[in-house]
């Protein structure tokens, strides 16, 4: 890995191009525009001044906050003018193939020799994701750190737009971070709930604030310390009220957004709470089974009783989707979604190996149809997408390390999904989530910044 550190150190930050090769009079020019932008904003990568029909490899390299290196690459052939335009030219091989403008980001993977089952997550949203993009002569698949690039440039991808405010929330026992958009406000509010992995995850909230929503990332489970938490329904109600009562938040324009176990909470709070009355909800890769009507410790104790249904695949990866199957017919074992009175958007992948989301969605449809509120439900189902449907251009993680709560045991959890379809699901669903929030929180006359 020392070679990569040396390579990164030699790159001048935000320099438009650094030419390395002196083998030819032709000096390849590599540009990435915008060189500084949001993570959900597409960039344009163009190489000029190559030889006609020259084989080249475009390579991206990122060092994570955990000091691991991630790379992606595509194989291209320049046109008769010696130009490669990634947005319209096909990659013939590499970590992605076809015409994929953002393949250099969504197909990132750990470099050979890295630790196993890694997951790339941005924990400090006050700094950008820095990606070095280089062009090499020929179609390479390895040895990038030992090969001189024809040209190199640097791009910054941000989760926090200029002017977005980040506010620590430590109030009435609630732990979270509030992100406020630029401008005088007031703004619609979104309570953002991540899954059972725990911790305070801020990057999705920062990105939503960059699109005009006051968004609060809520921590409700401390990783590895489940026995010490007494979080119950009142905790989420207090968090909702803290967000709702902020002077820059519109009290009557509130939403909830949940991923995985965060969706379980979103379903239960929307159905049963007398305090939480959102104008709309989004549930990503979640289920209405296992309603949250007790403290988190007791809920996870109930889930542990189902662990006999957990499976291992041939790679020793943990598959948990069976634990709630078959979907129970007993109404007491699932949230009564027939009582939901606001628009609800479900986002699922057909290859989710962590949670039985598609079976849950079918049951939710039937329950809401029977109750007469089916018109409030929209379901997005993405073929071959997995469980971790995140903001666009986030790399796909089929299986990663995971710490089982209360057991202090690290396993490799199988999330599922195939890289290219999963990347499509993330890009498409993000646009539709933003449009959904704009429609129901701002009004249909306000368009999302897509």
UniProtKB/TrEMBL annotation:
Keywords: Signal. The active site is at residues 260, 352, 387. It comes from Danio rerio (Zebrafish). This is Acyl-CoA thioesterase 16 precursor. The gene is acot16. Residues 40-171 form the Acyl-CoA thioester hydrolase/bile acid-CoA amino acid N-acetyltransferase domain. It comes from the Eukaryota. GO terms for biological process: acyl-CoA metabolic process. Belongs to the C/M/P thioester hydrolase family. Residues 1-22 form the signal peptide.
């Amino acid at each position: 890995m020392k070679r990569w550190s040396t390579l990164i150190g030699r790159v001048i930050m935000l320099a438009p191009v650094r030419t390395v090769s002196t083998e030819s009079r032709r000096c390849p020019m590599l540009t990435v525009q915008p060189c500084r932008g949001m993570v959900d904003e597409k960039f344009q990568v163009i190489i000029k001044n190559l030889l006609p029909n020259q084989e080249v490899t475009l390579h991206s390299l990122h060092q994570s906050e955990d000091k691991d290196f991630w790379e992606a690459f595509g194989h291209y052939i320049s046109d008769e003018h010696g130009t490669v335009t990634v947005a319209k030219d096909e990659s013939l091989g590499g970590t992605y193939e076809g015409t994929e403008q953002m393949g250099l980001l969504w197909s990132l993977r750990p470099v050979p020799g890295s630790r196993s089952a890694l997951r790339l997550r941005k924990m400090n949203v006050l700094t950008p994701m820095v990606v070095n993009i280089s062009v090499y002569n020929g179609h390479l698949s390895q040895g990038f750190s030992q090969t001189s690039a024809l040209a190199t440039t640097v791009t910054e991808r941000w989760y926090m737009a200029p002017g977005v405010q980040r506010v620590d929330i430590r109030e009435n026992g609630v732990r979270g971070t509030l992100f406020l958009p630029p401008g005088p406000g007031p703004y619609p509010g979104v309570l953002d709930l991540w899954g059972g992995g725990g911790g305070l995850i801020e990057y999705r909230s920062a990105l939503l604030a960059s699109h005009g929503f006051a968004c609060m990332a809520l921590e409700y489970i401390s990783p590895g310390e489940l026995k010490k938490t007494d979080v119950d329904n009142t905790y989420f109600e207090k968090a909702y009220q803290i967000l709702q009562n902020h002077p820059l938040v519109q009290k009557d324009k509130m939403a909830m957004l949940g991923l995985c176990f965060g969706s379980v909470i979103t379903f239960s709070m929307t159905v049963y709470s007398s305090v939480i009355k959102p104008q709309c909800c989004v549930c990503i890769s979640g289920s209405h089974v296992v309603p949250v009507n007790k403290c988190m410790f007791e809920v996870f104790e109930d889930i542990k009783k189902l662990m006999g249904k957990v499976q291992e695949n041939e790679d020793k990866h943990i598959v948990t989707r069976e634990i709630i199957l078959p979907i129970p017919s007993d109404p007491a074992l699932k949230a009564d979604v027939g009582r939901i009175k606001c628009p609800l958007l479900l986002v699922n992948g057909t290859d989710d190996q962590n949670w039985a989301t598609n079976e849950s969605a079918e049951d939710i449809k039937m329950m809401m149809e029977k109750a007469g509120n089916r018109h409030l439900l929209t379901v997005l189902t993405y073929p071959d997408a997995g469980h971790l449907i995140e903001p666009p251009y986030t790399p796909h993680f089929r299986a990663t390390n995971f710490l089982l709560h209360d057991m202090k045991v690290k396993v490799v959890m199988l999330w599922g999904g195939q890289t290219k379809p999963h990347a499509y699901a993330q890009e498409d669903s993000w646009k539709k989530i933003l449009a959904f929030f704009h429609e129901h929180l701002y009004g249909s006359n306000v368009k999302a910044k897509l």
